[in-house]
Amino acid sequence: MIKDNQKNFSLLHVAIDACMIILAYIFAWALRFIGPFAATAVRTRSFEQYMFALLFIVPAYLMMYHAFSLYEPMRMQGRRLVLASVIKANTLGILLTTFVLYYIEEGDISRSMLIMFYCINIFLDFSARMAVYYILRNMRKKGLNQKQVLLVGYSRAAEEYIDRIQQNPQWGYIVRGILDDNVEAGTVYKGIKVIGRIANLMVILPANRLDEIAITLGLSEYYRLEQIVAMCEKSGVHTKFIPDYSTIIPTKPYTEDILGLPVINIRYVPLSNTFNAMVKRIMDVLGSIAAIIVASPVMLLMCILIKATSRGPLIYKQERVGLHNKTFWMYKFRSMEVQPESEEKKAWTVKNDPRVTGIGKFMRRTSIDELPQLFNILKGDMSLVGPRPERPFFVEKFREEIPRYMVKHQVRPGLTGWAQVNGYRGDTSIRKRIECDLYYIENWTVSFDIKILFLTFFKGFINKNAY
């Protein structure tokens, strides 16, 4: 029944997409030839000839939507992911259409009309999908269109799965209970009971109308996984596995196929790819040169103010740990009174720290003291974007206290980073910072770097936690 409903819904979605494509195409034609853009239009093809092309465009676009996973269930998909997939599919579609027209030497089809179709179709298709998304979400919040789920195994993964389902009722999942051999029946976690032992699957599966079974075994129970999967699949119920080692592997694991043997890499670091690293380095060099030129008047003014208000050098350098655990000297404008190294506190600066000078407070608050690190970027010690580097003292301390802390040294440290634009700098949670750093390392793209640089102008420079 559920599979039939899903199949019918997918067919309905395909029909809606086909209607949106046709509507967008006709609307684009009307705008170009009888609407506000008609004055400059040269019509060498009839309306019927334009519409004939839909016989090829509609099925081609529907196949591309399928290729970009736009007919997968939208229960847990984010809106930005859906929009990105719609844009990608339509971009590929317009490129293929243009290529075909060029190949068959068809020069009479209006290219401006195709561009209008491209823009209108993205808008209409995404709007239709969001309308369906919100209708279904409201239905699920009211208890309709629900999926009944049974968990096999009580573990940390089971608890985290229940947490997320209860925090997102719009997903439409109802957990019926948990089966486990090591936890007493009747044990309750957030309203979800342990209802029996795993062997009860033989009775529950034929008698219940379950939609999904989620295997959430603890690590010590993995030896039973093959047996339980075989039992579940005999029932024909959709089965999924939620591993109890999510703190070890990333949410999007990098997998390899070694002659049929699946291998899951513990961590995927895009910047370990030579091409990616080269692209990022070119961005760093060009970006740092441009930033030095633009910021040179500010840096000159700071030099004058530092010299005029306190004794000591203009630039303060401090040993930090960078790429592959190698140390380097990081540059900053001096914002504190000069102290002997033996007396220097091995701690972060705190609010109203007496060591900070008057102009130093302003520089720290606005992050101007970090500008000399643009020269660290030119040298190759640092990058424009990346995890912030720490002193060796703190690295030795945190590597023992915080799991996965040392992973941050698999990439160059940055002038700004994902943690900084999310407010984690200065005297804030080091664990939250590491979570942000790991997310950045595993999900790096050029566009992600650009996003962080853009957000830095609004969130990264001035921050209440920078003392």
UniProtKB/TrEMBL annotation:
Organism domain of life: Bacteria
Single GO term (MF): undecaprenyl-phosphate glucose phosphotransferase activity
Compartments where found: Membrane
Bilayer-spanning residue ranges: 12-30, 50-69, 81-103, 115-136, 285-308
Major enzyme class: transferase
UniProt membrane topology term: Multi-pass membrane protein
Keyword Zinc included in the entry's annotation: no
All copies of domain Bacterial sugar transferase, residue ranges: 280-459
The keyword Transferase belongs to this UniProt entry's keyword annotation: yes
Keyword terms of this UniProt record: Membrane, Transferase, Transmembrane, Transmembrane helix
EC numbers on record: 2.7.8.31
Database matches in Pfam families: Bac_transf, CoA_binding_3
InterPro entries attached to this UniProt entry: Bact_transf, EPS_sugar_tfrase, Undecaprenyl-P_gluc_Ptfrase
Family: Belongs to the bacterial sugar transferase family.
Identification of the protein by name: Undecaprenyl-phosphate glucose phosphotransferase
